[in-house]
Amino acid sequence: MAPIGTLWGIAGQRQTKVILCVAAVNGFELNTPEWSFKSKPAEFVAKFPYGKIPSFEGADGFKLIEGAPIARYLSSIGSVNLLGANAHEEALVDQWLHFAEHEIGIPAGLVAGMIYGYFTPFTLQILSKNTDRIIGALEHLESHLAGRPSGYVALDSLTLADLVLAGAIHSASSMALGAADRAKFPHIFAHYAKVTADERIKQYWGTENFLEARITEPKAAPF
How would you list the strands of the sheet with 5-8, edge to edge? Predict the structure, then answer.
């Protein structure tokens, strides 16, 4: 199969991981050019002047930015239903997708931005506040997953919400949550293990970057 388009992103970014998973589940091939924050390719800047990743250009010239819309678009044109079969199911998938993005992914990104000095000077108090926000979201999510016999977050099979949640959990575990934090949420990490063990997508995940203890001081940016 010829590539359906080009995805600009970096392998460690949770949104890029999710998009690559949607493509893999549907058997899509994507071009994935080299990309760097320090040296954005001229071709990329010409097509996406805002300069944000992930960005997608389809083989037909259709362009999108932002991780969730790209993942949703690829899901909508794929042969595997990741979005739900009716209005109720689609709403549930959307609900948990947005919960994962906004209640876990965004504060995890703020933690990373402070640790690496992207957004604001390092302040332990603000770092702890964002980590506490993640913990509060995880407490709600843990209770929800405890009542889900299938182990999936929205429906009884894999959906886009599960992939987005896995991305948010990977990010939070790599930047904000120590081992002691994660031990409090067995259902969440059983969900992460279930989703990421899928042979079609397991190459994009792992636990090797998960923290042993919370980070308490600034670090050099990895890219």
Answer: 30-31, 5-8, 55-58, 63-65
30-31 vs 5-8, strand pairing mode:
parallel
From CA 113, how far away is CA 145, in angstroms rounded?
Answer: 29
Q: What DSSP assignment string belongs to 51-112?
A: --SSEEEETTS-EEESHHHHHHHHHHHSSS--S-SSHHHHHHHHHHHHHIIIIIIHHHHHHH
Q: pLDDT digits over 138-165, tens only?
A: 999 999 999 999 999 999 999 999 999 9
Q: What is the largest CA-CA distance in the chain?
A: 51
Residue 11, helix vs strand vs coil: coil
Contacts of 64 (CB under 8 A, 6+ apart): 55, 56, 70, 73
Angle between helices 124-146 and 106-116 (to 10 degrees): 150
Q: How far apart are CA 119 and CA 208, in angstroms?
A: 26
Provide the whole-model pTM: 0.96
Phi, psi of 196 (to 5 degrees): -80, -10
Left (φ > 0), alpha (ψ -120 to 50) or beta: where does 27 sit? left
Among candidate residues 77, 37, 35, 72, the one with its CA nearest the CA of residue 60: 77
